[in-house]
Amino acid sequence: YGTSGYLEVKPINKRASGQAFEVILKPQSPVSDVAHNLPTPPKRDISLEEIKKKLEAADERRRYQEAQVLRALAEKREHERDVLLKAMEENSNFSKMAEEKLQMKMGQIKENREALMAAMIERLQEKGRRGDQRESTKGEGEG
């Protein structure tokens, strides 16, 4: 099947359940040994002052992140408050408009009823006058 760097793959007898392989690792050559064993840079000792600086920087980052989270929460609360106030205002406006419409409708109904009553009274008075005229005419004719 092939070779690759440090290993060689040879197929073995194929079986009914699949294939089997034999993996052979090649010995390292002197050139590859040098490539993998590069000297690491010497570790320098970290002073107590450097450790304190790193801790302070980490603490500063933590405080900054906390401030960002608190600021985001405050903005979210402010937005929620604004939305709630707007909803309350719209509800109040809707209630006022509904009440005004109802008052107008009630006023129109009252005016219509008063006009109807006035018309009925007028008709009754007219009938009464006609009746009085008839009676007076009857009375004159008899006498």
From TrEMBL:
GO biological process: microtubule depolymerization; neuron projection development; regulation of microtubule polymerization or depolymerization
Short name of any one Pfam family annotated for the protein: Stathmin
Annotated region (Disordered), positions in chain: 124-143
A GO MF term: tubulin binding
One cellular component (GO) term of this entry: cytoplasm
Superkingdom, taxonomy of origin: Eukaryota
PROSITE patterns xref list: STATHMIN_3
InterPro entries associated with the record: Stathmin_fam (IPR000956), Stathmin_sf (IPR036002)
Family to which the UniProt record says this protein belongs: Belongs to the stathmin family.
Protein name (database record): Stathmin
Gene that produces this protein: STMN2
